[in-house]
Amino acid sequence: MSMFRSISVHIPALVLSTAMALCAAPLLAQQGLILLPEQEGSRQPVQDSNVLTAERVSRHRRAEAAEDPAQVQRDWVAPLRLTDLQVRRSGALARVSGEREFVGFDLYVADPARTHRLQLVTVSSINLLPERSFMRIKVNGADLDSIQLDNFETPEADEIVIPQGTLRPGRNNVQIEFRQGHRIFCGPDASFDLWTDIDLVKSGLVLDTVRGGADADGFMMGLAAQSAGLAPVDIRGIDSLGAESDAWRRALVRRLNQALVGTPVVFSFTDYWTVAPRDRSHARITILPAAKSQISFRVAGDGARVMVLEVAQGTRPSDLLDQVPQLEPQAQAARAPLLSADSENSFAEFGIRTESFSQRYAVRNHPFRLPDDWLILTAEKARIYLDYAYIEGLPKQSKLLISVNGQAIRLLPLRGEGGAPITRFPIDFEARIMQPGTNTLTFEMMVPGDPADLPCPAYDQPFLQIGESSSLFVPYSPPMSIPDMDLAFSALTPDSLSRNELSNRAYSETDILTLSAALARTRGDIRPSTLHLISIDDLGAVPMAHHRADRKLLEDTVLLTPEYEAMVAAQLSVDDPFSARRQQDRGFRAALSNLVSLIVDRIYWVRDRIFPSNGDQLNAWLAERRGQAVLFHLDPARPDEIWMLRSAESDMTQIAQSIAAARSYGRGPRGQVSILGHDGRWDNWIAPDRRPTLLEPWSFQNFRTAMGNFVSARPIFYTFLMLFLALGSALVALRLVISTREKS
Amino acid sequence: MNRRHFICGSALAALATPLGAQTALDGFDQKARPLWEAWKDRFLRADGRVVDTLQQESSHSEGQGYGMVLATFFDDAEAFSRMYQWTERNLAVRNDSLLAWRWLPDAVNAVPDRNNASDGDLFYAWALVRAYARFGDPAHLTRAQGIAEALAATCIVAMPGSEERTVLLPAQFGFNKEGRVSVNPSYYMPLAMRDVAAATGVSALAICAQHGEALIEQLAQNGLVPDWVDISETGIAASESLSPNAGYEALRVPLFMVWSRMPRHQAVQRMASVYARTVQPGVGVPTVIEPISSAVLESSADAGYQAIAGLITCADGLSAGALIPPFTPDQPYYPATLHLFAMIAAYETLPECVPL
Questions:
Q1: Which residues of B fall within a CB distance of 8 Å from A40?
Q2: Which domains are seen in chain B, by residue range?
Q3: Strands A233-236, A283-289: parallel, antiparallel or unpaired by DSSP?
Q4: Cβ proximity of A426 and A346 under 8 Å
Q5: Residue of B62, B195, B213, B249 with catalytic role
Q6: Which residues are A683's β-sheet partners?
Q7: CATH number at A485-572+599-685
Q8: Is the pTM above the cut of 0.80?
Q9: Is residue B302 annotated as part of the catalytic site, yes or no?
Q10: Which of the four pLDDT bands, split at 50, 70 and 90, describes residue A333?
Q11: Is residue B106 annotated as part of the catalytic site, yes or no?
């Protein structure tokens, strides 16, 4: 059959005008007909292949052998969301150490009737004795099952069934008690070897399909799942709001971070047209410009739970977000409890409930807050009245160490008075250990093994209890302030981040989003403060005031990693055959040199006390420290600004988590320079020449305390000042005496 | 080509430039650039060959045409040029301007079958027309004109039983036997046919597009539009030898209708009602459906099919935003390409159907 049939069709003008309206109008006007291709005569048939193969007509079908993805069960996990930022975390794994720890999680559930399988993926230290090691799970206060901790090689899943009626829609509380016994030893040292890692991405409620969840609870469940793996949550289309987009950006980051307890949720702002991430998305927010504002929840094409915000012009974020009870800020958003000065504050008032310790080693930190204008620098005493009790017969060396802001204030031996409650035991300590803003009270208990070289006997009763009726007396302070980065640090918000062109070398967009999330859990605007993000090339931009921080030392602080220093130390430790000879040669010269340097050190020590403003103390402090980030707050003239320098090797997620933890639990950056160590702890340098300021007029009532603070801030200076005044007075008096005698 | 054709072509080509510019997606090429890069990384070889990974790593005129159309939407002249050159070298082996439908790697004869595929030719010509408008090389328009004329000459025939209407044959050979033609409704892409007709002056394509829309409307009266139908003097019937179901071929029909700015077309509404009933987010999307009963015979979890379902459902006006999943290259060539098509169609024709 010829395929080249003649095409010569007369077409009505109406049809043509429809088909070719855009481009052929001139030609149509000319003839009323469109010019058609002319027959160019027959050609040779293209090829003798008019075979209609099955391949030809079904080329889009999937290959027979291909797995039918529709049949693949898409299980996923509504994960346990760790609520305690103090639990050490590395990626998806959280490490629970010690003999007995209680770890709290949030579990968001959209439809409790759908599933009852709770999966826990763990791996434990080989030191655990399985017969004495287990997890006991409580859901919403109901005791469920216990699971033996016996996954030693690789993370493995254990599963329990949650009884009907235990779960409720929305936020559920899961508490897991980890009991870990050492298979060989007993005591505080042994307890350091006991740990279990729990996989926070794979542990949670197993959902058999992705159906359902198109509601606020489903969205919260997806949000928890998305953030469990520390993956950013997409917010799509925010730029479509034009000038209002910034307000929405701030409100969403803040509100959603306040609605979820635990690790800050990182957000990523994207267009609507995106490539799917490597790991499946569980939640996102999509913003659509609309004539009428409304909020709805959908399950997107990829199974992600989506909060859809249709936003009309002029709509405030709170107008829509307040409609969703699930987005109400959680309790974590509250700052640490504020104590009153010049009064006794019971432990219960600042959130410490009666606490029992039944492990050989335990540490408990309790943050509290003092007024921002409270300041004691003198030797005035604060006092704890401790109500506690411990059992009889505890081994020798059993003790309770009480610290404030990391400084030990009392070591209580736990022997001699066991078996009976001890009430209002007075513990005095210097009030100047406490600071305006956030403080931390720490209890650290140690009970040696008896014997230490055998596994601990099974014992469930607490060794020690500390009662919530205990109290802390905080002495009076007139309203005073002293330069310290804590106030500015507490006031940081996502809007506080400040960058310049050089910052972009050290901070990616993702880093900024991660930091923003960490700063989003503010409790309202305290006062504006700024966090300047600087790169190492921009160190000169940091205002140092009169401090002279050595640039090389600063660079070493963030550039030298522990691994590099370990390598250098290893190289130095290689035996040097000539070192002994050199030591002998030095002999007398070395001894002389040591003596001179000792004398010089003493002279410098005296000089630093008299003139504390010189920069050597800061440099000496810096020289001994390494870390992943450094915060500067050196210029008292800029009290609301902090400068941050980060290590090139640092992980911004860890930095952000440390910042969030410090803002929730205290023990964060203080003073003028703070280094975030590689262990996640903040190490602070407080300038010795800080000068307090009295925030009210001098009066008879405040004179003694305020003057005491001024003198205590620079005691040597005032001592010498008084000495010079005394000398001057003496000279004047002497001169007066002499001159009087001359006259007479 | 005679003088009359040349004048017509030149005049229309002059009109085609602003037309093409109008259809360029302002900003989309930049906003969605990562999607295109992901598609290229996965399916486009360095030499310009678009690989259908699921079909013996082969390449088709359709794949080359699809890829080149995408390149014009994403303003990627370099990728377009690579695909064009490979296609000209390897598939332009016929005596006419059309392309052989398939190229097989690792075969002694890479093109054992020189028959064409009219949808591949159509998209190839559309890509060239768009490229001329976008990149300004007149050679592209000249080549498109040759293809359009050859398509009109070889694959547009009178509909049996209704000489006033034309149909688009799937290929030059094999689908027109003994007074009965086999037609694949998904080979009609009205927007492409009109654009090519407008730019080349081959009006038969525009007319055929109109007839095709009517044919598809007619098919959709009784149910879903099937993959293949037989048309003879006695009328239109389900295909006897080819797939009578609404399958992997036919799922393009509503997509192309929406893209051609016909979201209220009966074919779209039919498919939307099936998707509304069957599609569950995250679960496989129906890909083979019995046209009359709408019973689902096969489904797929590939995101591209989900994207089509999301677009069609949104086009039917059920809600704001579309359940179009994010683009993923971790799917076969065909759904991946349709995924991008669905996104472009949404952006171009239904701004309210942005992916949720």
A1: 153
A2: 1-155+190-216 (1.50.10.10), 246-356 (no CATH)
A3: parallel
A4: no
A5: B62
A6: A675
A7: 3.30.379.30
A8: no
A9: no
A10: low
A11: no
